[in-house]
UniProtKB/TrEMBL annotation:
Residues covered by the Polysaccharide chain length determinant N-terminal domain: 37-129
Catalytic reactions of this protein: L-tyrosyl-[protein] + ATP = O-phospho-L-tyrosyl-[protein] + ADP + H(+)
Main location as per UniProt: membrane
Organism: Massilia consociata
Domain AAA: 578-697
Protein name, as recorded: Polysaccharide biosynthesis tyrosine autokinase
Coiled coil segments of this chain: 297-338
Transmembrane segments annotated in the record for this chain: 52-71, 468-486
All residue ranges annotated as the Tyrosine-protein kinase G-rich domain in the record: 410-490
Subcellular location: Cell inner membrane
Keywords: ATP-binding, Cell inner membrane, Cell membrane, Coiled coil, Kinase, Membrane, Nucleotide-binding, Transferase, Transmembrane, Transmembrane helix, Tyrosine-protein kinase
Amino acid sequence: MNHPADSHPLTHVTHSPPVLSVPFDPRPPEPLREEPTVDLKGYLSTLYDSRWLIGSITAFITVVAVLYALVAKPVYEANLMIHVEEESPNASKNILSEASSLFETKKAAIAEMELLRSRMVVSRAVDNLQLYIEVQPKYFPVAGFWFATQNAGNLSDPGLFGYGGYVWGAEKAEVSVFEVPDSWLDREFVLTARAGNRYRFSGGGQRLAFDGTVGQRYRVPLPDGMLEIKVDRLYANPGARFRIKRKSRLGTIQAIQRSMVITEQGKQSGIIEVKLQGENSARINNLLSEIGREYMRQNLARKTEEAEKSLAFLNQQLPILKRQLEQSEDRYNQFRNAHGTVDLREEARMSLAQAAAARTRRMELIQKKTELLARFTEDHPIVAAVNRQRKEVDEELESIARRIRTLPVMEQDEARLTRDIKVNTDLYTALSNTAQQLRLISVGRVSNVRLVDAPIAPERPIKPNRPLIVAMAVVTGLFLGTLIAFTRRAMRGGIDDPQKIERMLRARVVYASIPHSANQDKLMRKSKPDGVLPLLAQILPEDPAVESLRSFRAALQFSMPHFKNNVVMMAGPTRDLGKSFVAANFAAVMAASGKRVLLIDADLRNGHLHRYFGVERGKGLSRAIIGGATVDEVIHRNVLERLDFIPTGELPTNRAEFLLHLNFGNLLETVSPEYDLVLIDPPPLLAVADALIIGAHAGAVFLIARSGVTTEGQINESIKRLNHAGIAPRGVLFNDMALRLGDYRSQYGGGPQLAYVA
């Protein structure tokens, strides 16, 4: 075997200019003018790389959604439909009325919608159903209601392992009376069933407890007032507990008003639909039915209110008028019996007729005034006109009376008695006819609204829609997972494609793309924290990452004759780029090809290459530099076949100045002729200056970038610092690259993308 010293002397070697030896320009390179394209392959690769993240997020959200769909309380919906008709559907129409109807907007339906939601209607329904009293079985949190629905129709054994009083079946309690002081509203009390149709009442945040019997009413004095309760029914086994609460009446009314959804079906159709949702099917059906009945009753009462008021007044006056008529008839009969039949003169008959007519008009005016006062005041012009007419009639009566007084006394008495009978008879008959007409109006009056569809207790809940919830959870999980994947990629800012480096530097400088090794991950998980690190090139030499290093070996052997010496440094901009992994495995790959290789761990900050070979750091580079040991003493021979290794040695304090010692350069000059390749692993380039000092002795410097971690700025800054130190890096090794969909590496077992540089 030929010694490297014969073919690669340290000096007297002419070499071509390095690839990245151009003077550094602080301005960022101008981007290449390319047509904007959508990197669909890159997007798909990001999704593929984050498949476990997306899958985990989707699975978690889906599981949560499934649990929610199973334990969520069902929500039912009941509805009723009302038709509001026009007030006068049969009214005559003409050209003007038909033309004006084109510009009118029907407001009757809008008014009826507001009346349906009014407290006048809702409060009656709340009071009739006593919705301000809330009684519910005490279920186990979250899942207790679901278990109760599965055991519907049967009573359960209360409690969880005999404790807590939780119910798991069809337990039910009915409370018809429950009154508490205002300061005790919305407090939660507990009703515990006992044997013998008895119960125990307690809770409310106070030391309040007493025993009671179902069906009896109890009044308990409190500091703020009186508590009153009556339990009508208790369907439960002893030990079962119920939560009972007295809510605010106004709050209950307002809550129902907010929950009612009232809409008009179609445009100006007059058909109103009322919807109400709740967790209890029978409860919302009863509530909506009560609201519908109360609304219809109120509407009809409003239509007949005027007729009922007039009828009430007439019902009070008719008995009085009947008694007056009877008294008039009795007096006339007594007069005739006492004086016999009297032949009245024509004048007396005429006067009597005039007086009777005047009396009739006077009573009609009184009746009319009474009806008008129900709607108007005394100062209204119509009432004033009636008063004037009545005054004129009174004056006429006085005139007739004066004329009649001129008749004989007997004729006057007969005329007066006859007049009273006639007037009272006519008035009583008129009022009786009016009352009968008002009764017919009250009975026959039809409201302009009718209940088209009455509420029906819903059989199936509208919520939760379990298939939709699960489907939406899957879609949401995929969306959030994808969003987090792309956000993580954007926040990281790392380069994930080696071609981006070449486009940035405008040169084919990527010597190798080393794929991520799942086998290395498995080996690392099995290794001990402070034990020997697995060397992938030795354990699994067919791994795709090792194959990529073999390709880099071929490229390096082609380029090495142009280097000034056979010393190669692998530098990384920052930590955790896999630099030590690449250096150790590449040294093993070079040694496996038959080359003599020396690997030097020059990371005096945190070097750990010795763990790959199971040797102690002990005697190493630091001791050889200070003269504490010879070169032969610090070299660990044949850690692998044809591979020697120099560890860091004891880590010194003045590390940067330590590498400036002349002994470091002399050591490299001493070992270089003995090996085909001297490979150096330095500290991070951007963190400390050690790599710049070591790079001055190297024939070639390669930058290591890690997929998704190293940024464009870090690569530019590393090249800048190396150029300022007079060092021209030869190329870049792109490490830990994820296999993309459709990549040839995934089809042929993995292999790097190489860019050979002369």
